[in-house]
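Here is one chain, start to finish.
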Amino acid sequence: MLQIDPILSLAFAMHETKGGYALLIGSGISRAASIPTGWEVVLDLINRVAVLDSAAAPADPVAWYREKYGGEPDYSVLLEALAGTPAERRQMLHKYFEPTDEDRTTGVKVPTAAHRAIAELARRGYIRVVLTTNFDRLQEQAMEAAGLTPVVISVADAIDGTMPLIHAPLTVIKLHGDYLDSRLKNTEAELGAYDPKLDLLLDRILDEFGLVVCGWSASWDAALRRAIAMPDTPILDVVGGEGGAQSRGERAGRSAASSRGADRVSRQLLPAAERSDHCARGDCPAAPGQPCPRRFDGQAIPSGSEPADPPA
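Its structure:
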């Protein structure tokens, strides 16, 4: 059986059906930019509260919180307790998600090569829908730098007034919310079920698009795992994903790219897509003095490349 690198197969399929794949990205995309996950923000806030309360950071922040406040840590509850107004909450969260001048110099909290590659894939028309579990705005920033203006949906209430996906050139759906909105989802209970409006939109996307998963571990998001695992979910390809998503891809009957990190998008998928574009224009890379192998203009096939006669 012919074995082709799954990344090359994916690039070929995405080129032949431009705009026919949605992209799901997770925290693995932003990890290289030193962006914390929502849960890491919760743990840091608990540590800060504990230090103010007892002058020492607890060995187990979650256990300390349970004993102190009699409940499970919750992002929204913590934010509202620590910062009473939206302006105060934005200021408190700013340092977690926005770069300082020093950060920009060292490439921290700014779009990574993977973010930029995804933006370029969108600019070339390969992707029109991006699903993300990330709170940060790095992907939107990369798209804006590429001259794109995506429609961004970060809360379920915004779905009603949004342009239909079929008419929107590029849509980013922030499944867990945006860091500037306190209605974030990051606890196990919050990730157990989505708002019905968001569930319906997600079902439509999974029904109408193929899915490429990048940097999403499938470890926490039960609602999203259930949606992807539905029997009628189209082919799933995985780039830098792992766990449940990859096994679902294998069950769909298509080999999944191994989990080697989200930077495969920039190192392999985008270059392969760029070469596909070149070949589609008839300017494939060829040996010196040889015509493009994809030119069907009556020129002779280069010597030595004639196909063998088929077996009798």
